[in-house]
Amino acid sequence: GPSHGTGMPLEPGREAAFARRIDPRREPGLSPEQRLHMARVERALQRRLRGRNVLLALGIGAVTLGIYGYTFYSVSQERFLDELEQEAEAARARARARAESAGS
């Protein structure tokens, strides 16, 4: 039969330990200083994450605006080139008409 690729599973114990948030207030056997320090570290981490999220949002916004800008620019370029082509065509037609009237 078909062979199934086996993904390496994480040990459930480690995953649970990683997923469980450490609450300094509920952790037994900690001095008040350690609790305070852990709370401070936690706040710093949250601030850093918030900053990273803001940067990510700004980056995504900039890329989106860039894509929109480029699209508008290329569309207007295309329209400009079309108009230029029509102008050239009209000029050629006028030149032909002049040449014909001069030849007659």
From TrEMBL:
Region of interest: Disordered: 1-34
Any one Pfam family match given in the protein's UniProt record, by short name: Coa3_cc
The Cytochrome c oxidase assembly factor 3 mitochondrial coiled-coil domain, residue ranges: 42-87
Keyword annotations from UniProtKB, A to Z: Coiled coil, Membrane, Mitochondrion, Mitochondrion inner membrane, Transmembrane, Transmembrane helix
Keyword presence, Metal-binding: no
Family: Belongs to the COA3 family.
Protein name as annotated: Cytochrome c oxidase assembly factor 3
Organism expressing this protein natively: Strigops habroptila (Kakapo)
